[in-house]
Amino acid sequence: MPHLAAVGPSDGLVRAGEERLAGEEPRGAVRTERRKEILRQRREELGLSQEDVASRLRISVRAYGNWERGLVKEWTDRKLLALAEALEMSERQCFWLFRVMVDRDPPPTWRAAEENRLPQDPAQRDYLVDYAALMEAVPYPSFLVDHRWDVALTNSAFDRLFQSVRPHPTALPDDNFLRFVLFHPDAAAVLEDHEPAWCVPLLARFATALAEAPEDEGLRSIRQEVARDPFMEAAYRYGVPHWLTTHGEAAAELDGAVRTVRHPDPGWGLVRCRMVAESSRMLEGMGLTRITLVLSAPQGLPAGPVRGGAGFQQQQGARLRAVPPLGE
């Protein structure tokens, strides 16, 4: 089933619980720092001040400041669930909040308040629900993103491509795709040629988006996170300008770009994909763009339609009318 963040709760909490690896959670000082970062980063993603979050929690600014600094005697379920609601966390994010803070899962009855993320326009709401069904019929990984690269919708093919990715507080592929590419430790295991083919072009696109909306708090939050990572900061400040000089501005365009991914299904393996970026009048009105990764034949197989191959049955008989088939 598709994961539609704007329409309803996903199965992310269940999947994250199944996928997490025991014994890999940070300990000691590293874990303490992560506890501090997860709240601040999420607040900045939403463009909220400490005063805003304190107002949502109905506590003093000083009290929330202590929460964000980790000066809490005990993280109770009530406090953590209130934080998840105030910071508009998805089920998956709430799961990881509990894992980082108290090393256990959230109460099973909790569900994130996704209703607040729905468009107010009833026509847009209905459109997104139907669009989820449309995308689910696509055999290739496909997802909807806004200008901050926040993900609104993924289909099952997308979820399968990234099924081996471990939980992360802010950089999951179905939460924010840019953060995933730049900061998730598992990104390079799925995205082949990770630095030159994925990081640098997306950093170039991000630089353009930030220049167009310099006051956007979500984009500024990503810029601050890039600045805290010496490798990404060097890529942003020096690598991107050099890359654009060498390859030209058009190389940063996503639509039509050819990349390589490593699919967890051994039937696919290392596979070439073409990125197709498109929108519609309704999607543009919601500030959304659809990106589809059109996968070619798995490595070692012929490039044409493959009989019995996963994801290729719908291609049987498809052809460009202006191009005659072989043998004509």
Tell me what you see in this structure.
The chain is an alpha+beta fold. The protein has helices at residues 12-19, 28-45, 50-57, 61-68, 77-86, 91-102, 122-136, 156-161, 177-183, 187-190, 194-212, 217-228, 230-247, 281-285; strands at 3-4, 142-145, 151-154, 258-262, 270-278, 289-295. The protein has a 6-stranded antiparallel sheet with strand order 1-3-2-6-5-4. Helix 3 (50-57) crosses helix 4 and helix 11 packs across helix 13. The longest helix has 19 residues, at 194-212. The radius of gyration is 21 Å and the shape is globular. It starts with a strand and ends in a 33-residue tail after the last strand.
Low-confidence stretches: 1-27, 111-116, 299-324
Task: Determine the structural class based on helices, strands and strand pairing.
Answer: alpha+beta
Average pLDDT for all residues: 79
Tell me what portion of residues adopts beta-strand conformation: 5-15%
Distance between the termini: 41 Å
Helical coverage, percent range:
40-55%
Oligomer: single chain
- Strands, count: 6
Largest sheet: 6 strands, antiparallel
